[in-house]
Amino acid sequence: MEFSDIDGWAVADHAAALAVFRNSCDRIEGASWQHACAEASHAPDPRTFFETTFQPHPLPAPTLFTGYYEPELHASLNRTDRFSSPVYALPPEGAPAIPRADMPAALAGRGLEIAWLEDPAEAFFLQVQGSGRLRLPDGRSVRLGYAGKNGSEYRSIGREMVQRGIMTVEQASAPAIKDWIRAHPQDGQNLMNHNPSFVFFRVLDLPDDAGPIGTMGVPLTAMQSLAVDPRIVQLGAPVFVQAEGVDHLFVAQDTGSAIKGAGRADMFMGSGDAVGIAAGHMRARGQMFVLIPRED
Fold first, then answer.
1. pTM, entire model
2. Per-residue pLDDT tens for 51-89?
3. For the chain, how are helix, strand and coil distributed in percent, rounded to 5?
4. Which residues contact 284 (CB under 8 A, 6 or more apart)?
5. SS3 assignment, position 286
């Protein structure tokens, strides 16, 4: 297959993708990838660089593309009546291998709370997103990044709500699920406990204009960074996405608990509430074309 066979390739933002690819270069393993990175360092024309350095490989499975973002949440460094839902740091000995429902009791009294959020729904979805910006009452900002998890398999509570008949697939967006949890505190907690996976965080020293840190250890870029299953797509690889309403060149820089197999990928869409609404409604089906360095 050649790039001319891919609809939408000619009008992709090759320059933006090249800049993001370069940011990942010192973390990509393999001689062929390092050769591609060497070429990227002095490529005069971004589109020509991709077309002469890589071969596109279509993944056979149809892919569901969703969106994720870095939430911006009001928080406090101390527990108050308003802020009572904790965000936890990774214990010194590592994450306890116990499910979500048992985690509060296991962590109680250990002083691992980084901050406190306004409600359990926000704390839950912060774990789903894996990073966040906390706005403190005094105006300061704290950036959080993924530090580890308990090892339990991720289960979608949106899918569970559909199976229970609470919402339809079309209704089960992140904002709607949050509202339902807030309106049904006890049932909402039970629903969240259906997902036994539990995520811990660390405080990051990042400038405000930088994205959150992805699995590769570099800041993510809005609508340029893609979360993939690294067993299927090598981290650092450029990936052209051809989907409903989206023809775009990304770089695989992140992973996610729900991103398993060739049939799932997650687009990083940016930071803040407005982006969060768009990310919560993002569902597009299409295909991934993974760019692999040419051997000739």
1. 0.85
2. 999 999 999 879 999 999 999 999 999 999 999 999 999
3. 30, 30, 40
4. 64, 65, 243, 244, 245, 246
5. strand
